[in-house]
Amino acid sequence: MAEGMISSEDKGKGESLRDVAERYLFEPENRCMVQVEIDELPLYKRFKSCRLHDMIRDLCLSKGKRKGFLEVMDREMGGGDSAICKTNRLAIHAVGVDNDLSQRIGENKNIRSFVFKGYQFENWKLPKGIAKWELLKLLSLENSIVKELPPSICKLPCLQTLNVKNIMRLPNCIYKMKRLRHLFMKDDHERVGGEKLKFEGLNELEMVDDIWVGDVVDDITHLLKLPKMDMDVNTNREDGSTLFRRFVMYHSLHYLRITHCRVSKLPTYEVQLYQNMIELQLVGTRIEEDPMKILEKLPMLRVLGLWSNPYVGREMVCRATGFP
């Protein structure tokens, strides 16, 4: 998706690019070119994982490297860096620091996709040349050691997918990434300067993972007005009943996981609430009244998760006629 391989012209009514991408995957799966694992329920399919068969993977890597389309580097296995300054897509699997590699990465102005796993950058900082990555669409720093995300990251005009789940300090300029679609964050991140993290203006965002909403509720509800949204929410509010109602009143919300937020009572079911809620995960919500009286009426709900004291009452009743 972030590479622009999914055409918006193929979108059906009410579909997102992610829906189109999932349809694209079924064709190579049917031809046994890829292995796809999905959670499949009526009216709802979600991909859990996708991987290539060994022979197809070797063929793709060989052709990708030859054409300068893709290169995977495993520094522990002695992976070379001859093409690091000219390849468009680079995945690095490494442990430890490689100062020379960090410097050479910063020199590549044509990079479109960077995936780092287990990489420790020099001085725990991204390369200085990051502002030159004007074509970059995907940046993933999963399990890599970076202390702080530089403000220059927000100057990348094409960035659509950003994974910074391991980074503690974030600059308050993410709202400037107008083309951002997928954002993966650390729930207990710090904001540089201590300001509230802003999201207003991110009109193409479809997925937010592990966001702390204690002080950004207004911007979050702005996001919920978008055509489709999945959200993983953490908050320490003593009573989040009002906040929860604000979430479920938006028809665009398909998936919601809310954690560490006491919701004493779920909002009463109304036609305009929970309209398209397909999956709901409640963690530590300490609901006082039986939630099944409400949840059993949700017309689109297919997955319900209750974890770590979601309900503190004495009795929960699941009726045979519930959950249509």
TrEMBL record:
Look up keyword Repeat and say if it applies: yes
Q: Output one GO BP term.
A: defense response to other organism
Pfam families noted in UniProt: LRR_14, WHD_DRP
In terms of domain of life, where is this protein from? Eukaryota
List, alphabetically, the InterPro entries matched. Disease_R_plants, LRR_dom_sf, LRR_R13L4/SHOC2-like, WHD_DRP
Q: What sequence ranges are listed for the domain Disease resistance protein winged helix?
A: 1-60
Task: Enumerate the UniProt keywords alphabetically.
Answer: ATP-binding, Nucleotide-binding, Repeat
Domain annotation Disease resistance R13L4/SHOC-2-like LRR: ranges: 125-324
Name of this chain's protein:
Disease resistance protein At1g59780
Q: Which organism is it from?
A: Sesamum indicum
